[in-house]
Amino acid sequence: MKIEIWSDVQCPFCYIGKRHLESALNQLKPTETIEIEWKSFQLDPTIPSDLALQNSFTYLAAKKGMSIEQSISMHENVTQMAAKAGLNYQLEKTIISNSYNAHQLIQLAKTIKKGDEMEEILFDAYFCKGKNIAHLPTLVELGQQIGLTEPEIVTAITTNQFADNINRDIHESQQIGVKGVPFFVFDRKYALSGAQPVEQFVNCIQQLIAEKI
């Protein structure tokens, strides 16, 4: 079974959706091999490479023209939803930046079949540890955790080595009608959009398994 996931590292629902999918797979324990492929998607490609002083609260307030208090209130539901999935979001520590460099690191990790591990590390770094995921030294540090070397990380990011891969993923998302992320595609037969409840993932996977029997 192949599961393709269009995602942006700065999307809070993408990390939650990842946990819900993992919970479903842990419940079902399918006997067949599960291949998970993360696809690039940028919610806001116009974000400067580093806003530095903005976190999730101030960014949303500025973008939507609301008060900081309103933004914080809106984010409380997200934080609670994350907590139910076992994630400790620290949104006040987040550093809003362009996610393009992070996507390049994920694409590089996919060349050694560690895209899922890289995605997990980046999500945790951004949402739970307040890391700047556009900052090259930070990406080097994170990439080395899965066995990538500093030279290959620096080369990939500074030369836009994986620009074609990223553009291809984004174009493909447009072709299949992806309007937001996370977006999960199962064996190119079924799709789930958003951080759906664990039960939805279970039902979808069970349906696929039943069809293969």
Question: What can be said about this structure in brief?
Answer:
This protein has 213 residues and is an alpha+beta fold. It has 9 helices and 4 strands, in the order E-H-E-H-H-H-H-H-H-H-E-E-H.
CATH superfamily, by name, is Glutaredoxin
In total, the number of domains comes to 1
Instruction: Give the overall shape.
Output: globular
The proportion of strand residues reads 5-15%
As a whole number of angstroms, the C-alpha radius of gyration is: 17 Å
List the secondary-structure elements in sequence, H or E. Answer: EHEHHHHHHHEEH
On the 0-100 scale, what is the average pLDDT? 95
Fraction of residues in helices? 40-55%
Instruction: Please count the beta strands (DSSP E, at least 2 residues each).
Output: 4
By CATH, the topology is Glutaredoxin
Widest sheet, order of strands: 2-1-3-4
Low-pLDDT parts are none
The termini sit apart by 13 Å
Quickly count the helices. Answer: 9
Assign the structural class, choosing from mainly alpha, mainly beta, alpha/beta, alpha+beta, or little secondary structure. alpha+beta
Largest sheet: 4 strands, mixed
Quickly give the CATH architecture: 3-Layer(aba) Sandwich
Assign the CATH class. Alpha Beta
